[in-house]
Prior knowledge:
Layout: H1 6-35, E1 38-42, E2 45-48, H2 49-57, H3 61-64, H4 69-88, H5 95-116, H6 126-135, E3 140-149, H7 155-163, H8 168-175, H9 179-184, E4 187-192, H10 201-208, E5 215-221, E6 224-235, H11 238-269, E7 272-273, H12 277-285, E8 297-301, E9 304-307, H13 308-315, H14 326-349, H15 356-376, H16 387-396, E10 406-414, H17 417-429, H18 434-437, E11 441-446, H19 455-459, E12 467-473, E13 476-486, H20 497-523, E14 528-530, H21 532-546
Antiparallel strand pairs: 1-2, 1-14, 3-4, 3-6, 5-6, 7-8, 8-9, 10-11, 10-13, 12-13
Amino acid sequence: MRCASRGCRGDRVIGLVFLxxxxxxxxxxxTERANDVTLxxxxxxxxxxxxxxxxxxxxxxxxxxxLAPQRxxxxxxxxxxxxxxARSRGLDRTPELASFLQRQQQSLAMRILYQREGIEQPExxxxxxxxxxxxxxxxxxxxxxxxxxxxxxIIPELLEELAVxxxxxxxxxxxxxDRRILARGPDMGYHSWGETxxxxxxxxxxxxxxxLGEVAGxxxxxxxxxxxxxxxxxxxxxxxxxxxxxxxxxxxRLGRQLMEYYRRLWKKYGLQYEPGGLTALADATSGRxxxxxSTAVVVAYADGSLxxxxxLHLLDTxxxxxxRDLEALRRKLDYQIGRQVLxxxxxxxxxxxxxxxxxxxxxxxxxxxxxxxxxxxxxxxTPTSNRxxxxxxxxxxxxxxxxxxxxxxxxxxxxDGISGERIVEQLRAGSGNLALMDRFAPVTYGGEILEEDxxxxxxxxxxxxxxxxxxxxxxxxxxxxxxxxxxxxLPELEEVQRQVxxxxxxxxxxxxxxxxxxxxxxxxxxxxxxxxxxxQELALLEHKEQK
Length: 547
């Protein structure tokens, strides 16, 4: 008999829904019962299947299918023995642990908050990094000479002399009033971006914006006026700066995500700058205020306000005396208020410090900290400078220290492809003069670039002594001379001694800690009971899950 009424169809749907939830409930109860299965006891403390699964979740993926259940269970028992020993020594009640857990709890809650908002570390491709590197000042070093006078009125006359062919270095030695120039000469050598003294920072930044051979100035620095001449540019291999560039790109993109989120929080909490508050803060950071009004309010919002003193702490003022731009100061403060004030308010509002993922990870961090503290208490029973032991360790692990392949070369930057071809012809014909050869800079290549199918990569596979170019790169045109090729090789101890000594010390401590764990097993042997029935149930469960 068919039932065509809507009521019948509705009853069927409702019945299916109840059946679905009944099955889910049964499965949930089965899972709960399975998690309560006891696998072992240490005294009166049980180790359950839930503990077993939690332990597995912390293992690297490569190990999860490789270790037998008995091996994993032994690891859990060892961890519990370590915790019991640490508790007996009071290592779970130290102020250092309490402070560490407080920081970790806030950090973990912040991570959960950012995940909820879709803020995550961006993936950056190698090609994106190369493009960023080529456009950045980190792809080169600059060499420049300086001329410094105390009176700016003489500068036009000096520029006229240079325009008609006067030698910059000779002119500098005759007119400069800078003791460093007079003592060492006008040549300041090579400078990398961001790696210069505060005094010369303005001059170095100017050099990076100049063309080869260009003279610029006057630039006022401290008590003098400088003329600067860019005398050389050396390109830096991408691989040398890859790690630094990747860090910059990730920070830049992550910073944009965070700033967008902080702006939303500013709007949500109704933050506003008080009239004159930002100006007072700028005066305080620059040292123009003799006394600071501790009651002055810089930022107000619905639930409170931020005083001038609090904002100074948020900015962490060292190094801020030179910041006079109100807009730059505001951007900095906006970011710090978002990170240090508004994010904690959101974490508290959402109760994220008590979220299960935070508490679970916090327990793991607690165990790691306590284990490290216990490990630090184990005295070394081996002399610290046993040369024979270090050498034996090195010989046993020598392949670990294999030196990677590298190519030594010389590199020259050229203005364009046509002039580059002319220079390469001269070099191959052996007619390059000393001045031309002096334009080469030594460079060493290694890593992925040796295998790449790029102009540079192909040139690096050329014969020793050969010239290659001009090679078009993201940074311009380059000429390379291959000097020497070093294949992968096993080093002598003296070449890697520092790393070997560090590894030897670490492995020695790890070995002593393993001996300590074995001693714990012996001492607690009478309290450890393995539930064979529980292990059998575990084997059956894993067999069912694999099916």
